Structures are given as structure tokens and as C-alpha cells.
Amino acid sequence: MSAASVIQYGLFLLIVTLLVRPFGGYLARVFSGERTWLDPALGPLERALYRFAAIDPTVEMDWKRYTSCFLLFSSGGVLLLYLVLRMQPVLHTFDPAYRPGPVAPDLAMNTAVSFATTTTWQAYAGETTMTYFSQVFGLTSQNFLAGAAGLAVRVAFIRGFARQRTSLLGNFWADVTRALLWVLLPLSLALAPVLVWQGVPMNFAPYLKVPLVQAVEYAEPTKPARLTGQLIAMGPVAALQPIKNLGTNGGGFFNANGAHPYENPTPLTNFVAMLAIAVLPASLTYTFGRMTGRPRQGWVLFWVMLVLFVGGLAVGHIAEQRGHVLVDEGSITARVTTKPAATWKARRRGSASAPPSWPRSRHRTARPGPTARCTTASRRSAAWSPSSTCSSGKWSSAAWGAGSTVSC
């Protein structure tokens, strides 16, 4: 393990540890009804919500009623999100270049259930499947609501340990409201400007169509084609990212999720995202100690979690740094076959000889070019063109400019 890796891991764990006490104490004050610095601004809004929904926050519930309210709340979220995903063509009309259809019934139900339970299994490509309305009103809002419900259940679990002579666990609706207003919304509003500052998009603009620097020829089932432009996805990405990480949810705005440069463009955004994922779960250990009156037990839970996390971090680091056993020097070969134009001409003439097949590679996909064979030493993919040639482990191509070479 390099010194740089040790410094990064150590700095991350140090910051998380330093944040456990202030965040954990804040959560304990919020859910115990104690005064916080956000009360003057959020107190009137909280009372207005209670009046609107006809909720008495002072009426506490036993575990049966608390669980029933949680299931009712989650089921309503599933139904609402399912309807949004199924009706999204009706709700998205302003962008003529991007008009996705309704999400398939099975995928819509899978997505709705997973978001309502904060498992958030992303079985779709957000930039090609979802509309802006679905991403913001459907997925982002469900991240907030499901995250608040999960936080409320955690607090009720802690109260179960703290209250030994009563079966009451608190008021589910009051806990969800305070989790939203005092915890998730302020943190998301604080993190979103940082992401925008670092380059994460936050707009409702139509997708951009930009010309390619160099046109690309490719084969369609019936004829050769030429690609001259690319459609670049836009959207309110910065609105989804903070709550996705704070709620430890998996569904990102783009298919590649946190590996996409629009979701995670810089090392700072990556570090902030990791902190957002880790701080609340780690802080709840201190909250446990404060609310149960046993702060030492809370710290014991934290240190046990930290030791387990460091063990998993070491295993993950070793696996990532060693790479794959098959990606060795000389272990992968690629054969470049005839040009697409020649292939289509042969088919149109009714040639009896079929063009050579293109072997698939798990490590890269290359476009057909002139016949050649090259054993690769590095796994970088080169944009091969009909004028490409391979010699001594190097590709030279007019596409790369005069005299330029790329490892192959």
C-alpha cells in the first residue's frame, strides 16, 4: 500500500471520527425534542405541516402502530413513484430531442419498491430511461422520503433500548418530519452548491447535440452509416446527488452513477460523496449512547464498526490494486478484419465468401479495420480507422495525426 493511499484513507477516517460527536449529538437533540439552532426557521414550518395533515406530534405510538404507519407511508411512496414512471411521456414535453417512453411495468415496479425501501437498485440508464420530472419529482423526492422514514425507524429502535418501562416508541409522523426538515434537507442544501461549484450540472436545459471532431463510420443491419454528432445529457444532477449519498441510496442520475464525470467530476466531489455516505450512519452510534444514557456503549459500537470497515477497506484495496489475473502482458490478442465498407459491398454483390468474424474481447471493443494481429501490452483502446497499421506493439493511424502511435 502506497503512502498516498495511507494518507487518503487515514484522512477520511479521521474526519469521519471527528464528525461523529457533533453530528450524533445534533441528531439526539433533534429527535429528543430539544432546542437546536434551526428551530427559529423550521419550527413554524413544522407546526404548519402538522396542522395541514391533522397530526398531533405529542401522541406517541407503540411498535404495532409505528410499524403500520411506516408500511402505509412506504406503500404510498411505491404507488406514487410507479405512477410517475408509467406516465412520464405525458409529463415531459419540452425537449424534442429526448422523448423517452413509459417505463416498463416490471421495471417501474422494481424501481419504485427499491427506492421506497432505500435499496435503490438501479436497473436502468437514467439519462436514456427517465425524464427530468421522473428524476426530480419521482426519484429524488422518494430518496428524501424513504431516507427520512429509515432514519425515523432507527431512532425508534434506539428508543426501544432507552425506554425500559414503556412500550411507546415515539410518533412516526413527527420523526419523519424532523428527519426531513432538520437533517436531510439542510445537509442536501449545504452540499449541492459545492457540487455545482465543482462542475456538476444543475439545469433543466434540453439535451445538447454537438458535432464530433471526427466523424465515425459504423455498420447498421442493412447499410453502412456515418455518425457526425453526439447527444450530451443535461439535467438537475446536483439536486439528486446529495440525498443519494446521504440516504446511502444507489440510484444515480446517469447509468454509470458515481463513475460518470457529470456526477463526480473531481477528487473533491468524490471525497465529499464518501463523507456524506459515512457520516450519518457513524454518528448514530453516538446518538445511541446519548439517548440511552450510555455514551460508552455508543463509542464501543463506533469502534467496532470502524475496525470492520478498515478490514473491508484493506481487502478492497488489495483487490483493486492487484487487478485481474487475465490482464497480463501477452494474454490478450485482437484480430482486425476487413473494412465495413468492403464487407457491405461483398454482401450487396452476393459474394459467397462471408467476411471474417470479429472475435469478442471482454477487455475492449474495437471497430473493424484492416487485417492485422497484435499482442497487446497495455489495455488502452485505440480508435482504429481503415488506415491503421500495427507494428511492434504500436498502432499508427491517420486518425491520430501524422506520425502518431498508440499502444495496442
Descriptive overview:
It is a single chain. The protein has 408 residues and is mainly α. The protein folds into two domains: 3-204 and 236-322, no CATH class; 333-407, no CATH class. 53% of the residues lie in helices and 11% in strands. It has helices spanning 3-31, 39-53, 63-86, 88-91, 105-116, 126-129, 132-162, 172-197, 237-246, 267-292, 295-322, 340-348; strands spanning 61-62, 168-170, 208-219, 224-232, 333-336, 372-375, 389-391, 394-396, 405-407. The radius of gyration is 27 Å and the shape is globular.
Keywords:
3-stranded antiparallel β-sheet, 408 residues, disordered C terminus, mainly alpha, 2 domains, two-stranded antiparallel ribbon, single chain
Question: How many H/I helical runs?
Answer: 12
Class by alpha and beta content: mainly alpha
| Mean pLDDT over the full residue set | 80
- Beta strands, count: 9
The separation of the N and C termini measures: 29 Å
Low-pLDDT stretches: 334-408
Outline type: globular
Largest sheet: 3 strands, antiparallel
| Rg from Cα | 27 Å
**Approximately how much beta-strand content do the residues carry?**
5-15%
Assign a percent range to the helix content: 40-55%
What is the total number of structural domains?
Answer: 2
Overview in brief:
This protein is mainly α.
